[in-house]
């Protein structure tokens, strides 16, 4: 039987628990599964009250929307495919969540470059970041090391960074591992940056 991608996933936990997220068919997306997200948010502590979150390769927004549903003060979604970003913005509008969610229709690299130029004040740096990039683009240790190095200046010292990949990659300098698990064929971990001091 031919594989048929899911047309929707649901928000796990929080104010919007059970709400369906439509998956646009304009591009091939691979949203994190329900079981993985349940495990992830359990590791993150269930609620994210008052935290600033970044969903850097947002896709349909499943990870960031779960964070917003669980009390995040603000979640930024970065998605380079404009039709996918537009669909995510439409859902945020339907949820009346424009005050706590922002969609940026740009690439991860361009977004992080813009953050560097703006020199984000500490209050606007991120507490929790979700990194679920296209596996084909991040299948080397160097790609992950570069991404984490570029991201690090925009994090608070106690930040947590979720990484989803097809395999284990060596932990770059200045990072420590909080959690490492495998769910199905996906390897995921939560990393903490070592203190900037």
Helix content: 25-40%
The whole-angstrom Rg is: 16 Å
Q: Give the tally of β-strands.
A: 9
What amount of the residues lies in strands?
Answer: 25-35%
Mean pLDDT: 89
- Secondary-structure-derived class: alpha/beta
Poorly predicted regions are none
User: Strands of the largest sheet, in order across it?
Assistant: 5-4-3-6-7-9-8
Shape designation:
globular
Summarize it.
The protein is an alpha/beta fold and 197 residues long.
What can you see in these coordinates?
The chain has a 7-stranded mixed beta sheet, covered by helices on one side. By secondary structure, it is an alpha/beta fold. It contains 5 helices and 9 strands; from the N terminus they run ββαβαβαβαβαβββ. Strand 6, helix 5 and strand 7 form a beta-alpha-beta unit.
Key structural traits:
single chain; 197 residues; alpha/beta; 7-stranded mixed beta sheet; two-stranded antiparallel sheet; 5 helices; 27% strand; globular
Task: Note the topology.
Blueprint (H helix, E strand, L loop, with lengths): L7 E3 L9 E3 L11 H10 L8 E4 L6 H8 L4 E5 L3 H13 L6 E4 L3 H11 L7 E6 L9 H11 L3 E11 L9 E9 L2 E8 L4
Parallel strand pairs: 3-4, 3-6, 4-5, 6-7
Antiparallel strand pairs: 1-2, 7-9, 8-9
């Amino acid at each position: 039987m031919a594989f048929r991608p899911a047309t929707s996933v649901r928000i796990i936990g929080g104010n919007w628990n059970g709400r369906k997220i439509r998956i646009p068919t304009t591009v091939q997306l691979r949203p994190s599964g329900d079981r993985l997200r349940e495990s992830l948010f359990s590791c993150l502590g269930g609620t994210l009250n008052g935290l600033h979150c970044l969903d850097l390769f947002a896709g349909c927004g499943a990870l960031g929307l779960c964070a917003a549903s669980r009390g995040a003060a603000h979640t930024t979604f970065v998605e380079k495919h404009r039709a996918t970003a537009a669909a995510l913005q439409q859902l945020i509008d339907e949820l009346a969540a424009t005050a706590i969610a922002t969609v940026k229709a740009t690439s991860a690299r361009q977004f992080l470059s813009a953050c560097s130029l703006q020199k984000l004040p500490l209050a606007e740096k991120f507490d929790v970041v979700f990194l679920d990039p296209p596996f084909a683009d991040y299948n080397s240790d160097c790609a992950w090391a570069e991404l984490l190095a570029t991201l690090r200046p925009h994090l608070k010292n106690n930040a947590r960074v979720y990484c989803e990949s097809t395999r284990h990659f060596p932990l770059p300098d200045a990072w420590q591992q909080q959690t490492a698990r495998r769910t199905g064929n996906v390897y995921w971990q939560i990393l903490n940056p070592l203190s900037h001091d």
